[in-house]
UniProtKB/TrEMBL annotation:
A Gene Ontology BP annotation from the UniProt entry: methionine biosynthetic process
Boundaries of every Aminoglycoside phosphotransferase domain copy: 174-272
Short name of any one Pfam family annotated for the protein: APH
Family membership: Belongs to the methylthioribose kinase family.
SUPFAM superfamilies recorded: Protein kinase-like (PK-like)
Keyword Nucleotide-binding belongs to the record: yes
Record's subunit section: Homodimer.
Top-level taxon in the UniProt lineage: Eukaryota
Protein name: S-methyl-5-thioribose kinase
Length: 418
């Protein structure tokens, strides 16, 4: 332990801290007084520092006892850093190729030291805004989701192992409650934290608050989010939680991790790709109408789901005679029954994913925290037009998700929104 009690670090005190931690200082070279330190946190929750020395680098992430973008008026547990650290280690265990390695964790300081994803890695959301294609994105993300979810579910684990892990992550209750508020509650009522592109979307926001059918569906999804502990989920798997190059995909920031419904992660990622799709018209110009790029996003949406389903079922088939207690081999021991339960499992998972994805889209348009995809569109009228189309699709998906049978139908529905 470097420091005996918590205190927020700055560039100067961080050097003092690093010098006291061999697992960090040993990665930087001999001259620790000549470090390059840059704070790069997005401003929402935490401090994030890039630390570069003469022979190495890493990232330091420190949680604050409140939500950084709101201030001390919205307290938030520092313990989220603990859950992020153990989630990173667990995800890295099952999918090391797409999770940054953790070098150091200090529970007292709520601080994680981990691999620095050096340039040209950028946040996926920024790449989507810039119109950059990532040919391996669907392959990599489907790999991450399928492995981290399968290997932490009852399809692979015993109920004893599963309940122990669920109990551990139940401590991340404050971050779960934050999601419950900002995703499943605030957008559907008058809240001081809500905002939207006003006055353009005033009536649209009011329509969300007055839509009884929408509220009935969001209640069902909130219940699943609170009550269902299927697997270890990232809990905040949007395009701002992924760093990419054309060859690399790394999933970061699992501080919202807990044992929850699988569809929440799948839906969050797909929903954010859909938001990126609808934002493209706001970034189009005379030189690039973005039509080709929109088609790439649609292909990525379709490929991500199809590859995820294919890989998840392959893992299930590979381990069907293993220790997992969801479907005991003594009962589900013939191919016909195996295919039947898999079909039923994925029908529900698909509809869950659509619902959760839609909920994540709605909260990014009329809730507290928006996305740069839309916010970076300077023309408010143009921005509102893009947001309105995304909102209309999200409402459709949330209310009618059970009518869709496959991801191709979703892509078709996206194309139809004018």
């Amino acid at each position: 332990m470097a420091f005996s009690e918590f205190r927020p670090l700055n560039e100067k005190s961080l050097v003092e801290y690093i010098k006291s931690v061999p697992s960090l200082s040993s990665k930087l070279g001999s001259n620790l007084d000549e470090l390059t330190i840059k704070e790069v946190g997005d401003g929402n929750l935490n401090f994030v520092y890039i630390v570069i020395g003469s022979s190495g680098s890493f990232v330091i992430k420190q949680a604050l006892p409140y939500i950084r973008c709101i201030g001390e008026s919205w307290p938030m547990t520092k313990e989220r850093a603990y859950f992020e650290a153990i989630a990173l280690k667990e995800e890295g265990r099952w999918c090391p190729g797409h999770v940054p390695e953790v070098y150091h964790f200090d529970r007292t300081m709520s601080l994680i030291g981990m691999r620095y994803l050096e340039p040209p890695h950028i946040i996926l959301r920024k790449g989507l805004i810039a119109g950059v294609e990532y040919p391996l994105l669907a392959e990599h993300i489907s790999d991450f989701i399928s492995k981290t979810i399968f290997y932490t579910s009852l399809l692979y684990r015993t109920t004893t192992e599963h309940k122990s892990a669920v109990a551990e992550f139940c401590g991340n209750v404050e971050l779960c409650r934050l999601t419950e508020q900002v995703v499943f509650s605030d957008p559907y009522k008058v809240s001081e934290y809500n905002h939207w592109t006003s006055p353009h979307l005033d009536l649209d926001a009011e329509a969300v608050r007055n839509d009884n059918a929408l509220k009935a569906e969001i209640a069902e999804l909130k219940s699943k989010f609170c009550e269902r502990s299927q697997a270890l989920i990232h809990g905040d798997l949007h395009t701002g939680s992924v760093m990419v190059t054309r060859e690399s995909t790394q999933v970061i920031d699992p501080e919202f991790a807990f044992y929850g419904p699988i569809g929440f992660d799948v839906g969050a990622f797909l929903g954010n790709l859909i938001l990126a799709y609808f934002a493209q018209d706001g970034h189009a110009d005379a030189e690039n109408d973005r039509k080709k790029y929109k088609e790439w996003i649609l292909r990525t949406i379709e490929d991500t789901w199809n590859l995820f389903q294919k890989k998840f079922i392959a893992l299930w088939d590979k381990h069907k005679d293993g220790p997992g207690e969801a479907y005991l081999p003594a009962i589900y021991n013939n191919p016909e029954l195996q295919q039947l339960v898999q079909k039923k499992y994925f029908e529900e998972l698909f509809h869950d994913s659509l619902g959760f994805g839609a909920a994540k889209m709605i909260r990014r348009i009329v809730g507290v925290a928006h996305v740069e995809d839309f916010e970076s569109i300077a023309d408010a009228s143009k921005r509102a037009s893009c947001e309105r189309r995304a909102l209309e699709l999200a409402k459709l998906l949330l209310k009618e998700r059970r009518k869709f049978q496959n991801i191709a139908e979703i892509v078709s529905a996206i194309r139809k929104v004018q």
